[in-house]
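Q: I have 159 residues here and want to know how they pack in 3D. Can you give me a structure?
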Amino acid sequence: MFKPLEESEVKQVLILKSKRMKTLLTSIFLALAMFGYSQHGPHHKGMKDMSAEQRASLETKKLALALDLSENQQKKIQEIHLERALKRDTRKEERKERDAKPDTDERYAMMSNRLDNQIEMKAQMKEILDNDQFEKWEKLQLGKEMKGRCKVHKGKSSR
């Protein structure tokens, strides 16, 4: 009834089966990767939905861990973070109400204001922190800046 397969035919069957297996495994891997990526829902929003006080508290605690801050330093930095968070919230509300994109002069003013705030923050942190802590803080800020730049460039390239 059935004639035995020759050696070359056996090899072809095995090659076909291995190709099918690779295709199947690749498909499963891609499906799992897409499923895992799609799981970022409302619980992954980070600090966006938190109050200004909560965000300031978390930022202060992160710095306390990274820089080994004293209680006094933590209180001062908490006040700075709270002030900045409240300002950020008011600016965000103003942008929502405006609804139109800012023109060149407004963008310049916003960027200048942001840089002024960064200079002010740096001066305040220099008063509160000792030299070693301040150096670590500057490295942390540089890392955040670089991470933010990468996100901006990724967003622009994917359009």
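Q: Anything worth noting?
A: DSSP finds five helices and no strands in the chain. The mean pLDDT is 83.
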